[in-house]
Specification:
By secondary structure, this protein is of the alpha+beta class. It folds into three domains: 315 residues, no CATH class; 242 residues, no CATH class; 104 residues. One of its GO terms (cellular component) is plasma membrane.
Length: 729
């Protein structure tokens, strides 16, 4: 929404002050705070600025007056401020000293058109002031994914604007010399850190009182309702609330909307908006800046396009400035191996492959056991894929960088000895990790995580990263098991800075999976529902933007085969960080984390949880959940004993059967029920799981007991009614 303009002229603004005539104030001395802010704004002109930060003078690059462009400081002049400029706080007779001739000071009458241009920057990449005002994280993809709509309402109270008037700015020679002539991430990161991305060309001081409204995707408000809602919030904030005593307060949380009130300049202790505007001249602040890209002043330099690309990447993905060098190192082309066959009319001969079967009459999924190796090229992602003319052959693909980043050349170039690569996979006999896909008597997946155990946080001997992958099938008859093997290669001279399991697929992979599913055959469509073909990779949008795959595992989620990867960001020994992120994303010290993880992930031999996976002590199986089965069986035994006593009583008293015959009949009944229950338990444990079998058994027995109780109560009440009837007769 457009801003409401409160244009400061004299007696102080009201809601419709923008349309009113200015009232000339009496001349008064300029407040010291105003003069200090003006002087600082003049000193900021021409300095470097990182536009990923908020528009505040404290974020300027370099020391005060260390401008990146050449100004004629020798012809500095004193500028007298016009009387009445700056609102009710005065300004008459005030003088701003040592102002370069290329700097002009504008008061209110020249600024009406300025507010439509704001910072004077082009493009749609969110910058620092935008993120700061709306409390965004800086990751445009993540912020956009949770935001449905944005709105802004507020008042600007501009007092002065200082700006560079020269149309031909020239960079200092030392700044030009700092621009590298080639793609050198170290020099480019150093340049951005020291000089910023843009040059400040104007600074506006005054005050602003704004409301920022953020509508989340969960909000049910339509566009028209949201616009009316924004108007109501603005009226509640900026109108005189004394005339709205009957208006109920607006509830923000119920509508899934975030409302942020921000003021800059003026006295924060004053709540009323009209009264606050009167305090702006005595305590002004920077309310806007305009910028000029540094790359626009380096025409003709060989390294211009390298600097432009580095700045564009930095502004788009906003990595931490201390990670910028590593981030730029990894911004090279990414390709998938093996490469797809694109020759028209070419059909590769279908290889002979083992297969998985998920049900008795279901389709077969053939598994390619081809080894995929990429050599000394960093792997950044994995994905499963269906290939073949019938889309029924499962393959694995590796995403890797097309070239080796310069930072890894001293450690991983072809002439560096790193030792032979090592294949690593799960043990065939370790059934603790076997998880069924649909039925327990058919195809399974080995969900054991595959990672090199020689690598640890802080280990200075090097890091083992993935450079190859292979799928395989263990044949146990109908119960075949799909497993994954990885090839590990050592990167000496590097250490782990952060390591985390990635459970979320790439944002752009879902659409590709849908396209593949819709274009495949009917048999392939059925298999596409069983195989998750999402790309598991971390890219520049995942801070800090430089990740390598160090492990992976297969899994089963909602009846689909999935692959999950473990990524790490690496660094040199000088940037060692002895912290590791666990799967939940929290950071904890490495040694206690290792001990705690080992204790939590301790597997109980021969035990499985309710999904048939290896039981982990302290989570799904073992001592923490055994009470459930013990209590259930204990209650069932008590119920069985009660039923036996009731049956004996019923046989001997009601049916007048001898005690021996009654006991024999009870034994036959209970024996038959136990045999049937064992048969049902075997069937249930095969297809629905052990824990669900216990729940089902307990539920059935409880239902039978309740029905029996109701039947007995009904009979007793019926006899009682008959007795009462005869008694009244």
């Amino acid at each position: 929404m457009p801003l409401r303009s409160a244009l400061m002229d004299g007696a102080g603004p009201s809601h419709d002050l923008a349309a009113g005539a200015p009232v000339a104030p009496a001349p008064a001395p300029a407040p010291p705070a105003m003069m200090a802010t003006l002087a600082n704004a003049v000193q900021a002109l021409g300095r470097g600025f990182d536009v990923t930060a908020d528009t505040r003078l404290l974020y300027c690059k370099g020391a005060p007056a260390s401008r990146l462009v050449l100004l004629d400081e020798r012809r500095a002049r004193d500028v007298a401020l016009a009387e009445g400029a700056g609102g009710g706080g005065g300004g008459g007779g005030a003088v701003l000293t040592n102002v370069p001739v290329e700097v002009d000071v504008d008061v209110f009458p020249k600024m009406a058109e300025y507010f439509n241009k704001k910072s004077g920057l082009s493009g749609s990449v969110p910058l620092g002031s935008f993120n700061s005002m709306f409390s965004f994280t800086g990751s445009s993809k993540n912020d956009a994914a949770v935001t449905k709509a944005l709105a802004l309402d507020g008042y600007f109270v501009p007092l002065f604007k200082v700006k560079l008037t020269s149309s031909e700015l020239v960079l200092r020679e030392d700044v030009k010399r700092a621009i590298p002539y080639s793609w050198d991430p170290s020099s480019l990161a150093s340049f951005i850190e020291n000089y910023g991305t843009h040059i400040i060309t104007s600074v506006t001081i005054g005050g602003k009182d704004e409301v920022y409204i953020k509508q989340h995707h969960s909000s049910q408000l339509s566009s028209s309702e949201f616009e009316k809602y924004v108007t109501d919030i603005g009226d509640e904030r900026f109108l005189n609330l004394e005339n709205q005593s009957n208006t109920a307060p607006i509830n923000y949380k119920e509508k899934d909307i975030t409302v942020i009130f921000r003021r800059r300049g003026g006295c924060d202790l004053v709540q009323n908006h009209v009264e606050w505007t009167r305090t702006v001249p005595s305590a002004p602040d920077v309310i806007n800046m305009t910028f000029l890209p540094i790359v626009s002043l380096v025409e003709g330099l060989p390294g211009k396009h390298y600097l432009a690309r580095a700045i564009d990447l930095y502004l788009e993905y906003k990595p931490p400035i201390e990670e910028l060098q590593y981030f730029l190192e990894f911004q090279v082309q990414r390709v998938w191996a093996p490469e797809p066959t694109t020759i028209p009319g070419h059909h590769r001969k279908e290889p002979v492959c083992p297969f998985l079967q998920f049900s008795l009459m279901g389709p077969k999924l053939y598994v390619s056991s081809e080894q995929i190796c990429v050599g000394r090229k960093p792997v950044t992602g994995l994905k499963l894929s269906l290939e073949g003319s019938k889309q029924n052959r499962l393959t694995i693909h590796l995403q890797h960088l097309s070239s080796l980043p310069k930072i890894l050349v001293p450690h991983w170039d072809s002439h560096v000895a790193i030792g032979p690569p090592k294949w690593q996979g799960p043990e065939e006999q370790d059934s603790r990790w076997f998880e069924s896909i649909k039925w327990k008597n058919f195809a399974h997946v080995s969900t054991a995580p595959i990672e090199n155990t020689e690598t640890s946080i802080g280990d200075l001997s090097g890091v083992y990263v993935v450079t190859g992958a292979q799928l395989g099938v263990w044949d146990f008859g109908a119960k075949s098991v799909l497993h994954l093997k990885l090839l590990f290669s050592k990167v000496p001279g590097c250490t782990i800075r952060r390591s985390v399991w990635d459970h979320s697929p790439s944002s752009h992979s879902t659409q590709k999976v849908d396209e593949v599913s819709s274009s495949s055959s009917s048999e392939g469509s059925k298999l596409a529902k069983i195989v998750d073909m999402s790309e598991m990779s971390k890219g520049p949008s995942d801070s800090p933007g430089h990740w390598l795959v160090t492990g992976a595992k297969l899994g089963v989620e909602k009846g689909r085969i999935v692959v999950r990867v473990k990524d790490l960001s690496i660094g040199s020994w000088m940037l060692l960080l002895l912290m590791e992120e666990n799967e939940e994303g929290t950071a904890i010290p490495s040694e206690p984390q290792t001990k705690a993880t080992e204790k939590v992930n301790e597997v109980i031999d021969g035990k499985i949880d309710w999904r048939g996976r290896p039981a982990r002590r302290g989570k799904h199986g073992g001592v923490n959940t055994c009470w459930f089965i013990l209590v259930s069986f204990g209650l069932e035994n008590v119920a069985s004993l009660s039923l036996a006593v009731n049956l004996i009583t019923y046989f001997t008293v009601t049916m007048h059967i001898d005690l021996a015959d009654a006991s024999n009949a009870l034994t036959n009944y209970m024996g038959t029920s136990y045999i049937v229950s064992v048969a049902i338990a075997v069937f249930a444990d095969t297809f629905i799981g052990r824990y669900k079998s216990v729940l089902l058994s307990a539920a059935v027995e409880l239902l039978v007991l309740q029905l029996s109780t109701l039947h007995i109560v009904f009979l007793i009440n019926e006899k009682l009614l008959i007795s009462l009837f005869f008694w009244f007769e």
